[in-house]
């Protein structure tokens, strides 16, 4: 069986990191305040991470 290592793009890593960090922050803020809209911060973090990662991918491609 072949052992192949997958190369992850900056966009996928940025989205993963953005979701994890912003999700953690959102859960902490939700537990402190009780306002459920803080959970939406995870989606915002995913979007920002995706945008930054895609920009890095584009700049590395040149």
Provide a descriptive summary of the structure in words.
- This protein has 62 residues and is mainly alpha-helical.
- The chain has a domain at 22-61.
- The chain is built from 2 helices and no strands.
- The chain has helices at 10-33, 41-61.
- The longest helix is centred in the middle third of the chain and has 24 residues, at 10-33.
- The radius of gyration is 15 Å and the shape is elongated.
Overview in brief:
The protein is an all-alpha fold and 62 residues long. The protein has a domain at 22-61. Helix content is 73%, strand content 0%.
Summarize the SSE layout with pairings.
Elements: H1 10-33, H2 41-61
Helix pairs in contact: 1-2
């Amino acid at each position: 069986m072949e052992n192949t290592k997958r190369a992850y793009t900056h966009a996928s890593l940025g989205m993963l990191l953005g979701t994890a960090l912003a999700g953690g922050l959102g859960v902490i803020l939700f537990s402190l305040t009780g306002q459920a809209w803080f959970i939406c911060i995870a989606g915002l973090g995913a979007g920002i991470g995706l945008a930054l990662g895609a920009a890095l991918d584009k700049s590395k491609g040149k």
